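Hi R.,

As promised on Friday, here is the backbone we talked about, encoded as structure tokens. Could you run it through your design pipeline when you get a chance and send me back a sequence?
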């Protein structure tokens, strides 16, 4: 069995609680900020701060990890620091204070996942195509919390959101204490200098694609809950819609270890981009049609599920040896950092005028551009 000698449940436990935290932040943080009285523009800016630290933090910590070979020490330290930093959210509710807390908190929080991804892949070794079997527990955590918190928000106001977030951050740190370092990280593997790798056209094309698809998620991650609430959907139903998207993602993760060797990374990435384009157009133009929204949520399997699993495999294949941690960090910083922050910022500025439909149309255009970049320059 490929996973026999892998600390499966300890790795899975980290993903579970990490994505519990994400399942609180992504659907409900904007709702909390709206409850605090912030405008759409301010919500977009505060969400962008949360994502912008991914531009810098993963690369700083990735460099440290690849030079010292202690990824899990970094994960443990940054997880604890993130929990401590976030606890300051309860001290004040002004724009400047929340922005400062989110900046410090996210600098540490965004550092841990890329290093944990690299650790997981090192534990898997030559069986890296089984990554999705571990990662799916993150999706399960996300599903559970969006449903549970959505139901709780029917009874309580949004003040419960930061308390739930702090609980999940403490759980992340506690689980990180149980995960061992991977011995394979310390083995010498010949590799190209990172500067040479970044000169290859297919590497630049891949990073551009990752940036654009995460940019396209900006309106979804920042305003989807607010958007549906404005169209008369209950918070409980909205939570279930978020969960449906991730259920589809989980199902996809169960099959990805078969699909990646069979169809190849390039084909999976290109199909994911086309289906993402369809998803954003449906959400933008048909918010009052529940059947179409259900279908659009199933397409989360493509816009995130298949794309992310294929992208992780692509990074693992093209960034080897000492570049493994930095490759994962670069993927995180360019896509979730630059792409995610830009998408959140733009959606905040465009949400009121020209409006949600135009904003989601821009998201669809971004993924279409990404498709043509991949078609032209992305190699296997």
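Update: got your reply. Pasting your designed sequence below so it's all in one thread:
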């Amino acid at each position: 069995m490929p996973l026999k000698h892998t600390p499966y449940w300890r790795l899975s436990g980290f993903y579970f609680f990490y994505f519990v935290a994400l399942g609180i932040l992504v659907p409900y943080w904007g709702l909390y900020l709206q409850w605090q009285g912030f405008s759409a523009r301010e919500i977009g800016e505060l969400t962008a701060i949360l994502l912008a630290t991914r531009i810098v933090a993963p690369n700083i910590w990735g460099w440290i990890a690849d030079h010292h070979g202690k990824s899990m020490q970094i994960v443990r330290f940054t997880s604890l620091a993130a929990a401590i930093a976030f606890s300051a959210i309860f001290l004040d509710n002004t724009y400047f204070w929340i922005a400062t807390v989110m900046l410090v908190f996210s600098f540490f929080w965004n550092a841990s996942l890329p290093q944990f991804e690299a650790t997981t892949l090192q534990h898997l070794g030559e069986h890296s195509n089984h990554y999705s079997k571990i990662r799916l527990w993150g999706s399960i955590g996300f599903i559970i919390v969006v449903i549970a918190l959505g139901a709780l928000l029917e009874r309580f106001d949004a003040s419960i959101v930061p308390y739930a977030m702090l609980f999940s951050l403490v759980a992340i740190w506690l689980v990180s204490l149980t995960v061992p370092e991977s011995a394979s990280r310390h083995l010498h593997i010949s590799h190209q200098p990172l500067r040479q790798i970044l000169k290859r056209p297919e590497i630049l094309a891949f990073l551009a694609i990752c940036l654009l698809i995460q940019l396209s998620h900006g309106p979804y991650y920042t305003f989807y809950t607010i958007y549906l609430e404005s169209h008369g959907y209950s918070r409980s139903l909205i939570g279930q819609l978020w969960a449906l998207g991730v259920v589809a993602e989980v199902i996809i993760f169960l099959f990805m270890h078969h699909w990646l060797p069979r169809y190849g990374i390039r084909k999976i990435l290109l199909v994911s981009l086309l289906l993402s384009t369809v998803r954003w157009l449906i959400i933008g133009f048909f918010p009052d049609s529940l059947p179409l929204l259900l279908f659009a949520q199933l397409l989360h399997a493509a816009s995130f599920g298949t794309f992310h699993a294929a992208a992780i495999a692509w990074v693992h294949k093209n960034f080897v040896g000492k570049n493994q941690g930095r490759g994962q960090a670069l993927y995180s910083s360019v896509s979730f950092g630059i792409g995610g922050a830009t998408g959140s910022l733009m959606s905040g500025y465009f949400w009121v005028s020209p409006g949600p439909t135009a904003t989601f149309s821009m998201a669809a255009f971004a993924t279409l551009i990404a498709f043509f970049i991949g078609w032209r320059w992305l190699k296997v």
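One thing I noticed while checking it: Residues 185-189 have pLDDT under 50 and may be disordered.

Thanks again,
M.
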